[in-house]
Each structure stands twice: as C-alpha cells, then as structure tokens.
C-alpha cells in the first residue's frame, strides 16, 4: 500500500514539474528594455474593443497548396529577399549543434545575421562587421569604419550583401560600401541625418531612408544620390523602423508617419501613396506602429496598428482591411497569409476571397498539448520550415504546427536564441546571448 501511494505522489510531482520546470511558459529574462517598450507602445496606442479575437476552426475539407521546399545557400538580405517574404525552408530538424564558435564580440550584437559564400556576416553595436568562415571555423575579418570619438555611442548598422560587397547604413548618417574579401572600403558618404530603414538594391541603386522619412536612391558604385524623395516627417520619433520592399515594377516605402509610397522602378517617380495611420487625428506628432511590407504577386500586405491591409500593388486600392494585426513579420504561402496577432492568435487568411481559414489561440494550444493551465509566451519569429509553421519563442523554445494549425511538437533549442535565425544548407544558424555562433542541424 505504501508503495502504491508513493507511486501516486511521484506521478503527481512529475505532472507538476512538466509545467513549471520545462520552461516553456517562462519568459526569457534577456528580453531587452527596447523590445518591452515596443510591445508596450503598441498595446497602449492601438488597443481596441473591435480587435478580432475569435477562434475559427479549419474546414475539414480544406487543403492548402504547398510550395516546393527551398534549401538556401545564401541569406544576403535581413528579410531574406527583395519582397520580404520567407520561402518554405528545408531543415534537418535534428536539433543538434554541429558547430559552436567562440565568442565573436564583447559588445552587444545587432539582431540580424547574413550569409554569403559560406561566411556568416554579423555586426555589433560598436560598429564592428564580423566575418566568420564556416569553412575555417573562425573569424577571418573584422572591420570597423568608426574612429575613437564614436566608441561610447551605440551604433546600429543596417547590412545588405551583393557580390561580396557589404552595403552599410547607420544611425549616425553614414552610408558606405565594403568589399570584405579584398578588405577594401569602396566608398563612404556622410548624409548627416541618421538612417532608419532596411536596405534594398534596385539595379545600380541602393535604396535607404533616414529618420526624417526622406527616401534615397543612391548609386551603389560611388555613393552619389540618384534621386531623393522627401515624405512626411514625424515630430515625435517612435520605435517603428521605416521599411522597404520591392518587386520588378515597384519599390515600396512605408514611413514612420504611416504612409505607404509606391515608386516606379523605371522612372523613380511616385506612382501612388496611401496613409495607413488610424489614429484620431493625422498630424506630424502621431505615432505609427506596423510590420514589414510583404509583396506577393500583385498584392501588398501590411500589418499596421490594429488592422492588416491587403492592397493592389498597381494602384494602392484596398482589397481587404481586416481588424487584426501582427507583432511578427507574417509570411505568405501561395495565396495564404499566416500571422500571429497581438492577442496571440495564429491566423491563416485567404488572400483570394478575404476569409479566415483558421484562427487558434497559441497559448491555449500549448496548454492543451502539455495538459497544463494556460499562460502567456513571448514570440520572436515566425517561419515556414519543412511544410510546417515554426514559431520561435524568446525563451528559445520552438512551437511546430502543421500547416492546418495543429501543434505537433515543442522543442527547446540546444543554445539560447538571441539573433533572428536563418536557414542555410538544411541547418539553422543564429547567435546566442554569449555572442557565440550556433549552427544547428
């Protein structure tokens, strides 16, 4: 009898520890103050009683059309490609570290890493660009453009790689090009006003925007301005970063005022523009929050404030305006949009007919999977991997949903996830909080 009661107690203890000690519900203490402020600002400004919060189950007869999986050999844009949309990445998913570097920097790393010709390209907030060779398994180059007078300033670098040339803009107003294999600075310009956008390349021009919402087309050979397009400036600077995306016909620019501009790629003239700021009065002091622009075929997808917009890229007309928004960069698979809303719903939306395919509470899915009480998790990244939806959490857990929105597996990464992960040659690469590179098979 004593043995029986002992077994019962042991089972109960194990059930409790699975919830409390597994760590899935534990939010990472390494989340920076800046990240917390972003979410706080978003919730305070744009909370609304009309926000979509329904659970919608998928129709049992519905079938998604999947795309072919992509095995990357490079990752030269922080948002992967020109249109900012992820593909269906391949990954061995053995969750084993096959390479762990030494600490590559003593300073805080910037959030994005790139990959070109078997080299991992990263940067820190001291202005260092660090090239780590996977072939040699060591740092092969460190380049710092800045003089000692900037050593106490936090430097945010925006990187883009093309043909072994790294193009860099920063929060000091500099823009420069560095050919890393030849260790050669090709050109450098000081535009005085801090840059605040990702970078894109259109033919011979580098595209960038500054904190005053001026859009630059800059000759990538010499750094001279090809065209400058001023747009609305905001008096109060917020945490939203100007975003750029482009296809063969148009370059799209979403500024901190909430205005979306479409620039004709041939003439570099404005084709159309539209303001998406939904605050009560449109004035230069209003704050705007949103996500990166996605382009899919002839549609533009922007998740901004409390709404997600699907627009016609040719004229800017609103095809759909739905009352949910995403805190992470969404992705599009064929004609299906996938996102996580600010109230923690995993939503799949049909871009053809404007209907929700499904909507599930992620926290509830976790609770059901673990057979525990529902709590809240913090999200970091959303991606399509091996035909499945991978949701990366800030505490380095990964939720793996099938394409129909059912949670199939929860795993913990073998090292802490700090930067955005990238998928290269069937492996996943990221930096941990000790500034060490992890290559996970």
Structure notes:
The protein is mostly beta strands and 441 residues long. The chain has one domain (36-440): 7 Propeller (Methylamine Dehydrogenase, Chain H). Helix content is 10%, strand content 39%. The chain is built from three helices and 33 strands. A five-stranded mixed β-sheet has the order 1-27-28-29-30, with helices on one face. The chain has a four-stranded antiparallel β-sheet with strand order 2-33-32-31, with no helix packed on it. Strands 3-4-5-6 form a four-stranded antiparallel β-sheet, with no helix packed on it. A hairpin with a 5-residue loop joins strand 25 (345-350) and strand 26 (356-361). The chain is globular, with a radius of gyration of 22 Å. The termini are far apart.
Write the layout of secondary structure elements.
Elements lengths: L1 H19 L12 H14 L41 E2 L7 E7 L10 E3 L2 E5 L4 E6 L4 E7 L12 E6 L2 E6 L3 E6 L4 E7 L9 E3 L2 E5 L4 E6 L5 E6 L12 E4 L3 E5 L4 E6 L5 E6 L18 E3 L2 E6 L2 E6 L5 E5 L8 E3 L2 E5 L4 E6 L5 E6 H9 L8 E7 L2 E6 L3 E5 L5 E6 L9 E3 L2 E5 L4 E5 L1
Parallel strand pairs: 1-27
Antiparallel strand pairs: 2-33, 3-4, 4-5, 5-6, 7-8, 8-9, 9-10, 11-12, 12-13, 13-14, 15-16, 16-17, 17-18, 19-20, 20-21, 21-22, 23-24, 24-25, 25-26, 27-28, 28-29, 29-30, 31-32, 32-33
